[in-house]
Amino acid sequence: MYKKIILLLLLSNWLQTIANAQTIKGQSWTEVKQKGSGNLYVTYYDTPNLIEKVGGKYEGVCADIMQNFVTFLKDRRKVNVTLKYRDGQTNFKEFYNNMKGSSGAVFGLGNITITEERKKEVSFSVPFMTNVALLVTQKSAPPLTRLNEMSTKFKGMKAYVAKGTTHEKFMNSLKKQFYPEMPISYTTSSKEALAQVLKDPKAFCYQDLVIYFDAVEDKKPVKRHSVADRPGESFGLVMPPQSDWQPVFNEFLVQFMQTPEYRKILIEHLGADAVQIMDMAK
């Protein structure tokens, strides 16, 4: 009995150690500002065209935003910060929970939708882009022109959705209203959901605009069913709860998004077609 108790305690401590290792403890903005320098830790949810590691370099809209934030702090606040990237994560729930447990100079990047519920758990930047969630199948799937056709045209098809995301809520809404028999299989990420669709012509999923257009650019056999579009979402960069980095970062981001340089970054990474859809969704 005592041996079992000791083993359970050791296991509990080991699991807690792992959890703590994945969270990040950085300095507050107040501390860095007073010192005049510091490290800014960056973690990310791997997202094509927003933030990904390519050839040893971090690329995408979010990576460019962070680099310009460094320049802003140096030029406007006379504070020198060094970006310290951590390994990217492919499991959204783990990424998000790690951000909830972090503190100080930590930023989380990716296609993270701002919601009222999440704003109670983490700090968000102002929105840096508008998103449209798209219902996606392989090209061979029958076209969906009305949502009330879903239970017949998608009969025998399975939905894949990343657990803990807004896509899960959208899919459950479709199931409740239009396709009660819809089978749903859960994945750890939106990219994994898309991978399942690409393997199975009888599969469908919701995808963010940026991931869908990345698939189109790679000439993947995907089809968008625009009748099920979910506009009105906004992506934000994430900071730990009650982060005092939020005001200075938002000051920078509001100004930066008004510049031609930011528009150029969006078109460079997302493409003109995706940016046009984003503009229409505002």
UniProtKB/TrEMBL annotation:
Which InterPro entries does the record match to this protein?
Solute-binding_3/MltF_N (IPR001638)
Residue ranges of domain Solute-binding protein family 3/N-terminal in the record: 39-273
The record's section on SUPFAM superfamilies has: Periplasmic binding protein-like II
Could you tell me the superkingdom of the organism this chain comes from? Bacteria
Q: Name one Pfam family in it.
A: SBP_bac_3
**Keyword set, alphabetical order:** Signal
Q: Which SMART domains match?
A: PBPb
- Keyword Calcium included in the entry's annotation: no
Q: Where are the transmembrane segments?
A: none
Signal peptide region: 1-21
Q: What is this protein called?
A: Putative glutamine transport system substrate-binding protein
Q: Please give the organism.
A: Flexibacter flexilis DSM 6793
